[in-house]
Specification:
With 187 residues, the protein is mainly α. Helix content is 45%, strand content 2%. 0% of the residues are buried. This is Septum formation initiator family protein.
Length: 187
């Protein structure tokens, strides 16, 4: 059939470097390496995908838990706001037997009293509530409510006058001194 042309010079030298005959043995390691790389990549991708899905489930659970806790916080805040409302505070104070305070007096930084303090007047419509049985038996209930209201104090006159001035400097008593034992160092 056809005869191979003879190579000369440089082409002949290069032709000697090429293997002569079939080269099946050189392809086997390459194919095995490609199969192992593809298999390892697929397994790594599967593990990565499953860990991302697990993280997604945890994230959705944490978001749900955050939503539930936020709703609970808002409900508790509404409850606290209800207790802090002025009408609720007034009702609770009257249940405890408290009455609105009288006229206040103020002290200036120099010690002068401004205003005349007044006593709290008990409205006639308020009455002390009967103690509940658990409050009577409880040792923590330390508030005592008198059976009859006390007579109001006469208007204080001493509080309206400033307190007597104290001397500018009072000599301080000298501190008692005790002799200290002396020690000598070995230096």
């Amino acid at each position: 059939m056809s005869k191979k042309p003879e190579l000369r010079g440089r082409a002949a030298r290069l032709a000697r470097l090429l293997p002569q005959g079939p080269s099946q043995a050189a392809r086997t390691p390459f194919v095995l390496l490609v199969v192992l790389l593809l298999g390892g990549g697929l397994i790594t991708l599967l593990i990565l995908n499953s860990s991302l899905n697990e993280g997604s489930f945890q994230l959705s659970e944490l978001k749900k838990q955050t939503k539930d806790l936020t709703e609970e916080e808002q409900e508790l805040q509404r409850e606290v706001d209800g207790f802090a409302a002025p009408d609720a505070l007034q009702r609770r104070a009257s249940e405890l037997g408290m009455v609105p305070g009288g006229d206040p007096a103020f002290l200036d930084p120099d010690g002068k009293v401004r205003g005349v303090p007044g006593t709290a007047a008990r409205p006639s419509s308020l009455s002390y509530p009967a103690p509940r049985p658990q409050e009577v038996a409880s040792p923590a209930a330390t508030v005592s409510v008198p059976a009859t209201p006390a007579a109001p104090d006469p208007a204080p006159t001493a509080a309206a006058t400033p307190p007597p001035a104290q001397p500018a400097e009072t000599p301080a008593a000298p501190a008692p001194t005790t002799p200290r034992p002396t020690t000598t160092s070995g230096r």
